[in-house]
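Severity: low
Component: inverse-folding endpoint
Summary: output formatting inconsistent between runs
Steps to reproduce: submit the following C-alpha coordinates with default settings.
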Protein backbone atom coordinates (compact mmCIF):
# COMPACT_ATOMS: atom_id res chain seq x y z
CA UNK A 1 0.00 0.00 0.00
CA UNK A 2 1.17 3.54 -0.80
CA UNK A 3 0.03 6.42 1.34
CA UNK A 4 0.32 10.11 0.50
CA UNK A 5 1.62 12.43 3.22
CA UNK A 6 0.60 15.92 2.11
CA UNK A 7 3.42 18.17 3.27
CA UNK A 8 6.13 20.45 1.97
CA UNK A 9 8.43 19.34 4.80
CA UNK A 10 10.83 16.47 3.97
CA UNK A 11 11.75 16.23 7.68
CA UNK A 12 8.21 15.12 8.47
CA UNK A 13 8.36 12.48 5.71
CA UNK A 14 11.54 11.00 7.10
CA UNK A 15 9.95 10.74 10.54
CA UNK A 16 6.77 9.12 9.18
CA UNK A 17 8.55 6.50 7.06
CA UNK A 18 10.08 4.87 10.13
CA UNK A 19 6.61 4.03 11.42
CA UNK A 20 5.06 2.77 8.22
CA UNK A 21 7.93 0.83 6.62
CA UNK A 22 7.56 -2.02 9.15
CA UNK A 23 3.88 -2.30 8.17
CA UNK A 24 4.76 -2.57 4.49
CA UNK A 25 3.14 0.81 3.87
CA UNK A 26 5.13 3.15 1.63
CA UNK A 27 4.71 6.78 2.62
CA UNK A 28 5.41 9.27 -0.15
CA UNK A 29 5.55 13.03 -0.12
CA UNK A 30 2.71 14.77 -1.92
CA UNK A 31 3.41 18.45 -2.41
CA UNK A 32 -0.08 19.87 -2.73
CA UNK A 33 -0.31 23.26 -1.01
CA UNK A 34 -3.55 23.59 0.96
CA UNK A 35 -5.02 26.49 2.91
CA UNK A 36 -3.92 26.65 6.54
CA UNK A 37 -6.65 28.74 8.13
CA UNK A 38 -6.17 30.98 11.13
CA UNK A 39 -7.90 29.18 13.96
CA UNK A 40 -7.49 28.67 17.69
CA UNK A 41 -6.54 25.01 17.56
CA UNK A 42 -4.39 22.66 15.50
CA UNK A 43 -7.41 20.36 15.18
CA UNK A 44 -9.40 23.04 13.36
CA UNK A 45 -6.51 23.82 11.01
CA UNK A 46 -6.00 20.12 10.24
CA UNK A 47 -9.71 19.43 9.73
CA UNK A 48 -10.12 22.34 7.34
CA UNK A 49 -7.06 21.22 5.35
CA UNK A 50 -8.34 17.65 5.11
CA UNK A 51 -11.79 18.74 3.98
CA UNK A 52 -10.31 21.01 1.31
CA UNK A 53 -7.95 18.31 0.07
CA UNK A 54 -10.61 15.58 0.13
CA UNK A 55 -12.47 17.54 -2.55
CA UNK A 56 -9.37 17.47 -4.75
CA UNK A 57 -7.60 14.15 -4.13
CA UNK A 58 -8.98 10.74 -5.02
CA UNK A 59 -7.02 8.41 -2.79
CA UNK A 60 -6.37 8.23 0.98
CA UNK A 61 -3.90 10.77 2.38
CA UNK A 62 -2.81 12.27 5.65
CA UNK A 63 -1.35 15.52 6.88
CA UNK A 64 0.18 16.76 10.10
CA UNK A 65 -0.39 20.06 11.76
CA UNK A 66 1.91 20.81 14.63
CA UNK A 67 3.17 23.64 16.75
CA UNK A 68 5.34 24.77 19.61
CA UNK A 69 3.49 26.11 22.66
CA UNK A 70 5.57 28.19 25.10
CA UNK A 71 3.91 28.52 28.49
CA UNK A 72 5.42 31.90 29.48
CA UNK A 73 4.14 33.29 26.16
CA UNK A 74 0.66 31.88 26.84
CA UNK A 75 1.02 29.22 24.18
CA UNK A 76 2.64 31.38 21.50
CA UNK A 77 3.61 30.60 18.74
CA UNK A 78 1.17 27.62 18.84
CA UNK A 79 -0.96 27.56 15.70
CA UNK A 80 1.28 30.29 14.23
CA UNK A 81 4.48 28.25 14.60
CA UNK A 82 5.24 27.88 10.88
CA UNK A 83 4.77 31.60 10.28
CA UNK A 84 6.75 32.60 13.35
CA UNK A 85 9.57 30.23 12.41
CA UNK A 86 9.79 31.93 9.00
CA UNK A 87 9.58 35.47 10.34
CA UNK A 88 11.04 35.75 13.87
CA UNK A 89 12.94 32.48 13.63
CA UNK A 90 14.60 30.73 16.54
CA UNK A 91 16.61 33.86 17.38
CA UNK A 92 13.40 35.88 17.68
CA UNK A 93 11.93 33.35 20.10
CA UNK A 94 15.11 33.36 22.18
CA UNK A 95 14.91 37.15 22.34
CA UNK A 96 11.29 37.02 23.51
CA UNK A 97 12.38 34.70 26.31
CA UNK A 98 15.33 36.81 27.47
CA UNK A 99 15.07 37.23 31.23
CA UNK A 100 12.11 34.84 31.46
CA UNK A 101 12.56 32.13 34.11
CA UNK A 102 9.80 29.76 33.06
CA UNK A 103 11.09 28.24 29.82
CA UNK A 104 8.69 25.30 29.79
CA UNK A 105 7.07 24.50 26.47
CA UNK A 106 5.49 21.66 24.56
CA UNK A 107 5.09 20.49 21.01
CA UNK A 108 1.76 19.18 19.88
CA UNK A 109 0.93 17.34 16.68
CA UNK A 110 -2.37 16.47 15.07
CA UNK A 111 -2.16 13.85 12.34
CA UNK A 112 -5.28 13.77 10.20
CA UNK A 113 -5.98 10.82 7.93
CA UNK A 114 -8.65 10.81 5.25
CA UNK A 115 -9.97 7.56 3.75
CA UNK A 116 -13.48 8.80 3.04
CA UNK A 117 -13.78 9.61 6.72
CA UNK A 118 -11.66 11.79 8.98
CA UNK A 119 -9.44 10.14 11.61
CA UNK A 120 -7.41 12.27 14.04
CA UNK A 121 -4.35 11.13 16.00
CA UNK A 122 -2.65 13.40 18.50
CA UNK A 123 0.65 13.57 20.35
CA UNK A 124 2.37 15.91 22.77
CA UNK A 125 5.84 16.20 24.28
CA UNK A 126 6.82 18.49 27.13
CA UNK A 127 10.19 20.11 27.55
CA UNK A 128 11.95 23.45 27.71
CA UNK A 129 13.47 26.09 25.49
CA UNK A 130 17.20 26.25 26.15
CA UNK A 131 19.24 29.45 25.90
CA UNK A 132 21.18 28.72 22.72
CA UNK A 133 20.87 26.49 19.66
CA UNK A 134 22.38 23.03 19.92
CA UNK A 135 22.62 20.31 17.28
CA UNK A 136 22.13 20.14 13.54
CA UNK A 137 19.52 17.40 13.07
CA UNK A 138 15.75 17.68 12.74
CA UNK A 139 14.08 20.86 11.62
CA UNK A 140 12.22 23.93 12.86
CA UNK A 141 12.65 24.68 16.55
CA UNK A 142 14.49 21.40 17.24
CA UNK A 143 17.85 23.06 18.13
CA UNK A 144 16.34 24.86 21.15
CA UNK A 145 13.82 22.28 22.38
CA UNK A 146 15.02 19.87 25.06
CA UNK A 147 12.45 17.27 26.03
CA UNK A 148 11.85 16.61 29.74
CA UNK A 149 14.24 14.07 31.20
CA UNK A 150 16.84 14.46 28.43
CA UNK A 151 20.16 16.29 28.27
CA UNK A 152 20.03 16.81 24.51
CA UNK A 153 17.83 18.84 22.18
CA UNK A 154 15.78 17.21 19.43
CA UNK A 155 18.41 18.49 16.98
CA UNK A 156 21.08 16.46 18.80
CA UNK A 157 19.09 13.23 18.46
CA UNK A 158 18.78 10.72 15.65
CA UNK A 159 15.41 10.52 13.89
CA UNK A 160 14.72 7.27 15.78
CA UNK A 161 15.43 8.86 19.15
CA UNK A 162 13.31 11.91 18.38
CA UNK A 163 10.47 9.74 17.06
CA UNK A 164 10.50 7.67 20.23
CA UNK A 165 9.45 10.63 22.35
CA UNK A 166 8.21 13.37 20.05
CA UNK A 167 4.71 14.75 19.58
CA UNK A 168 4.64 13.64 15.93
CA UNK A 169 6.17 10.27 16.80
CA UNK A 170 3.37 9.67 19.30
CA UNK A 171 0.64 10.73 16.88
CA UNK A 172 2.17 8.66 14.06
CA UNK A 173 2.51 5.65 16.33
CA UNK A 174 -1.19 5.86 17.19
CA UNK A 175 -2.00 6.23 13.49
CA UNK A 176 0.25 3.29 12.49
CA UNK A 177 -1.32 1.07 15.18
CA UNK A 178 -4.80 2.02 14.03
CA UNK A 179 -3.87 1.38 10.40
CA UNK A 180 -2.41 -2.02 11.27
CA UNK A 181 -5.70 -3.04 12.88
CA UNK A 182 -7.77 -1.62 10.07
CA UNK A 183 -5.70 -3.09 7.21
CA UNK A 184 -6.41 -6.64 8.42
P1 LIG B 1 3.12 22.96 10.24
O1 LIG B 1 2.67 21.84 11.09
O2 LIG B 1 3.75 22.49 8.98
O3 LIG B 1 2.09 24.02 10.07
O4 LIG B 1 4.34 23.67 10.94
C1 LIG B 1 4.43 23.87 12.26
C2 LIG B 1 5.74 24.54 12.61
O5 LIG B 1 6.00 24.17 13.95
C3 LIG B 1 6.95 24.12 11.79
O6 LIG B 1 7.23 25.01 10.76
C4 LIG B 1 8.07 24.17 12.81
O7 LIG B 1 8.59 25.46 12.88
C5 LIG B 1 7.35 23.84 14.10
N1 LIG B 1 7.45 22.41 14.36
C6 LIG B 1 6.49 21.47 14.23
N2 LIG B 1 6.96 20.26 14.56
C7 LIG B 1 8.25 20.45 14.88
C8 LIG B 1 9.27 19.56 15.30
O8 LIG B 1 9.13 18.33 15.40
N3 LIG B 1 10.45 20.13 15.55
C9 LIG B 1 10.68 21.46 15.45
N4 LIG B 1 9.78 22.33 15.05
C10 LIG B 1 8.56 21.82 14.77
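Observed output (run 2 of 3):
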Amino acid sequence: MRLAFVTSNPGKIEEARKYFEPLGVEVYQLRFPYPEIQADTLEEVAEYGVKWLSERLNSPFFLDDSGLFINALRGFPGVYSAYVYKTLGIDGILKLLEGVDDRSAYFKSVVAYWDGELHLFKGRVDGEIIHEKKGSGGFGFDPVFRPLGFERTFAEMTTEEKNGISHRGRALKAFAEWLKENLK
